[in-house]
Specification:
This protein is mostly helical and 95 residues long. The chain has one domain. Helices cover 69% and strands 0% of the residues. α2 packs across α4. 8% of the residues are buried. Keywords: Signal.
């Protein structure tokens, strides 16, 4: 049931090949993928996402106000990986 809901959410959000690549990654490619208390995992997730926001803003400024397609794809891959790692840490994604 969770996989069906995840697939529906991903298709609704328009997640494409980057998310498929993250999902297909072997578990050992995710450091610290052990289950932990949800609040701890959320705090790590929030910190990571705030760092990614800052990185995206810096890249956007360096790119002249608009992210290049390469930088956009790089940021999206990092967002996808961070989100998948969060779900694995709280035991929400069993693959």
């Amino acid at each position: 049931m969770r996989k069906v809901l995840l697939a529906a959410a991903l298709s609704t959000l328009g997640c494409g090949p980057a998310m498929a690549q993250v999902i297909a990654s072997p578990p050992e490619s995710f450091p610290n993928s052990t289950t932990m208390p949800p609040q701890v995992a959320f705090n790590l997730y929030k910190t990571s996402m705030l760092k990614l926001r800052d990185e995206a803003r810096a890249l956007q400024q360096a790119d002249g106000g608009t992210l290049t397609p390469e930088h956009d794809a790089e940021i999206q891959r990092k967002i996808d990986r961070t989100t998948i790692t969060f779900h694995r840490r709280v035991g929400g994604l069993p693959f």
